[in-house]
Design brief:
The structure is a homodimer of 343-residue chains.
Chain A lengths: L5 H17 L5 H7 L6 H14 L2 E2 L8 E2 L1 H11 L7 H12 L5 H16 L2 E5 L8 E8 L4 E8 L3 E8 L6 H15 L9 H9 L5 H19 L3 E4 L8 H4 L2 H10 L1 H9 L4 E5 L11 E10 L2 E11 L4 H24 L2
Antiparallel strand pairs in A: 1-2, 3-7, 3-10, 4-5, 5-6, 8-9, 9-10
Helix pairs in contact in A: 1-3, 1-4, 2-3, 5-13, 6-13, 8-9
Chain A binds a DNA duplex (30 and 30 nucleotides) through helix 3.
DNA sequence: GTTAGCACTCTTTGTGTGCGAGTGCTAACT
DNA sequence: AGTTAGCACTCGCACACAAAGAGTGCTAAC
């Protein structure tokens, strides 16, 4: 990475911040004015030419001002930007609002996504906690009517899943007891990854005449375990795509990408850094080549459980957004961990 | 409503269907050809001029073909259109896919929305069953950990709601029993509209020293009753807005409308007909002035419980969509009713 | 290394022209 | 009276061209 003189850094910072704020290319005169006319616009033009050569700036066309290139944003984020600090009131507002959902992880992450979309005017994406290594803590069967019951599965990492099961036969106390015995023997304390459909099949074989009655319940348990392992992706603020004129060209492709599901899920589960900023083509998927993604992991206890973040144009207010997302992920992690520790 | 000669009806039908299919204004020659050149284009032009005068057709500009006006679509839907009949395989596919969610009404309607969005390439909106007159059938408390429990409320109209509650004190058998007693005495068999926060407050007063322990649970019950009364709106296929070029102008406003929530909810709860088609300015909200909304109610037992339908451009394949939505609403109703009757 | 001055480039906006599609009207026909 | 052929007309679209404005790049001087 080539070294930049202090003045060039200043110029890059001014251009980046002005462009982020206004969306207009920045000309040499404007910079000159912002620097108090300490140096002339010609000098700045020389520096800008150098910055273009080095790849940090781009010009939409010859007679326009300059805008940051992808590399320019990257340099800004890595070296020039001073992180904004969230006000105590902002922090409190977020925390209090989320606190009420701390018992329901899935809902908590959905709401966190909504908040983030609201705060950032971007598309917010969040994943519910998932953990292929989670251990089943308990399974409850709640009879709802003659033929239906709810099954609730509680696992480590604060994960909670439930489903409603229909049975062809009446669900009575006997059946509940058989179910609890099975749970006690085969499920509780086991890793969710062990409870696959084949496993259920071998288990079922040993049940004798209860097979037909129990199998819907056991299949439901297997489905719930599957749900624990799988990431559930929440999308919020899709309408914000249209807020950003620079995305409107890609809007269609982006929307398609968001709804295709799998690539988005991959992206959320594969990023390595605790907080990952991918600008433009730094993104793995080419649908995002004009977008920036900022994602943070959140941890329950000492395990990374999921991610939350945003997708927006490359022209983003990084200085505000990065700390906001970092804070939000922190709150989510601590709320979930807290709930867990209280058990 | 002025009478139309048979030929004018035919011309209107041809224009409407061609325009729906192609999106291009239809000229006199094309119609002439489609009618097997039985009459000349000049005659058709005369008729078209009349239809414009009567308000059924519009012309984007003098030298373009004609397109149906709002009134034209209305006339087409009311008098000219022949409803498409869903194939048995289509019917079966929809039914089988939805059947698996019949125990969870909220999920069922969310999935039904997804299916509808997929089938129609429009924005699909659905409401979960809600009923201010619903009667509480039972309430269950499922202890999850020392400090958390899930409360499940089952009401008439097949409504099922649940929430997780945190308590500062340990949730033991005693507390569960007190809770069940309260449910038995004050909640079960009552109308959900009776269980308001003030009601809880008066109830709490009679609890003596259990007040602080019980109040989070009772508040949760009140919240769940509130949720039973309130319509929960599911939005699906928002990306489809961008599929329709004629909406792209309004896309921003439409997205805003969809996310504002309340007006959308009003629209869904207020339409009178079992199946309601509102074309353009027939819609109550001016954000929808270039859109068509098609909504159908679905009934659980003999009560209207919710709605499902679509929002799209006025240029819609009415002949396919109306029967599809009608069928879907029927399936939802019968699935929910069935589940209910089996109890 | 910095600056003033100026020609140059490129976008934006407005205007004019030709082309094509489809109409509206008139006069003739059945 | 209803239908038809013929033709002038209108309008949108595509394209070209010119003028204005913004900002640059370069050169020569400081």
């Amino acid at each position: 990475m080539a070294q930049l003189t202090e003045r060039k850094q200043l110029i890059l910072a001014i251009i980046t911040e002005r462009y982020i704020a206004t969306g207009e290319p920045v000309g040499s005169k404007a910079i000159c004015a912002q620097m108090g006319n300490a140096i002339s616009s010609a000098t700045i033009r020389n520096d800008m030419a150098d910055l273009v050569e080095m790849g940090y700036l781009a010009q939409p066309h010859t007679s326009a001002g300059r805008i940051p290139s992808q590399a320019g944003y990257r340099y800004y984020v890595d070296n020039l930007m001073t992180n904004y600090e969230l006000g105590i009131d902002e922090q409190a507002r977020i925390k209090i609002w989320l606190q009420s959902f701390s018992g329901e992880p899935d809902k908590l992450l959905e709401k966190a996504g909504s908040i983030l979309a609201e705060l950032t005017n971007c598309v917010a994406v969040s994943t519910s906690p998932s953990d292929a290594e989670a251990i089943i803590k308990r399974i409850e069967l709640v009879p709802l009517s003659k033929n239906t019951a709810m099954i609730v599965l509680l696992a480590t990492s604060g994960i909670l899943k439930s489903a409603v099961v229909r049975s062809d036969t009446e669900i009575n106390v006997d059946i509940a007891e058989v179910f609890y015995n099975i749970c006690q023997t085969y499920f509780n304390g086991r890793n969710v990854s062990d409870i696959s459909i084949p496993f259920i099949q071998t288990l079922v074989a040993s049940l004798g005449d209860k097979v037909f009655i129990m199998s819907p319940f056991l299949c439901a348990v297997a489905d719930l375990c599957e749900a624990v392992k799988n990431t559930e992706v929440h999308l919020k603020g899709q309408n914000n795509i249209l807020n950003h004129p620079e995305l409107s060209e890609d809007a269609f492709g982006l929307m398609g990408f968001l709804h295709r599901g799998t690539p988005l899920e991959n992206m959320l589960t594969s990023h390595k850094n605790p907080l990952n900023v991918a600008i433009g083509t730094e993104n793995t998927y080419r649908e995002l080549k004009n977008s920036t993604t900022i994602f943070s992991k959140y941890s329950v206890g000492d395990r990374d459980s999921g991610s939350i973040g945003i997708i927006g144009p490359t022209r983003l207010d990084y200085a505000h957004l990065i700390p906001t997302i970092r804070y939000l992920a922190g709150v989510i992690g601590s709320l979930l961990t807290e709930t867990l520790d209280n058990e």
